[in-house]
Amino acid sequence: MEPAEIFELIVKADERVKYATPENADLRRRQARELLERARDAARALGHAELLRQAEIRLADLGEEA
Asked: Domain-by-domain residue ranges, the chain?
């Protein structure tokens, strides 16, 4: 996966949370977590420290241990 694709996963995760409604907030948080886990794993595999840090920060913001 290319850095731009990893960044796009992070952006998509942010959008899931940002545009969540009270009715679908839990679902959107789960979706965001899945996207961020994919981004984190891909950034780690690529050795891209900055994208890895961004994914881990956002996972922590969701209450997940990164």
From this structure: 3-61
